[in-house]
Amino acid sequence: MSAETSEVRWRPGPTHLEKSRVARLMKKVGAATPAALHAWSVADVPRFWDVVLDDLGLDWYRRYDRTLDLAGGFPWAKWFVGGKTNVVLNCLDRHAGATSAGGGAPSAKLGPSPASAQREALVAESEDGRIVRLTYAELRREVGRAAGALRDLGVRPGDRVGIYMPMVAEVVIALFACLQVGAVAVPVFSAFGGEALGVRLADAGAVALFTADGGLRRGASVEIKSAADAAMAMAPTVRRAIVLRRTGQKVPWTPGRDLEWSEVVGKREPDLRTEVLDAEAPSMVLYTSGTTGKPKGCVHTHAGVLAQVVKELGYAFDVHAGDRFFWLTDVGWMMGPWEMIGVTALGGTVIVYEGAPNFPAPDRLFETCARHRVTHLGLAPTAVRVLRRAGDDLTAKHDLSSLRILGSTGEPWDPESWNWFFEKVGGGCCPVINISGGTELIGCLLSPLPVTPLKATTLGMPGLGMDCDVFDEDGRSIRGGIGHLVCKQPCPSMTKGFLNDRERYLDTYFSRFPGVWYHGDWAHVDADGFWFLHGRSDDTIKVAGKRVGPAEIEAAVVAHPAASEAAAIGVPDAVKGESIVVFVVLKPGRAESEALRDELVAAVERSLGKTCRPKSLRFVDALPKTRSAKIVRGAIRRRFLGEPAGDLASVENPDAVEAVARAR
Question: 540-662: which CATH number, 3.40.50.2000, 3.30.300.30, 3.30.1360.70, 3.20.20.210?
Answer without folding.
Answer: 3.30.300.30
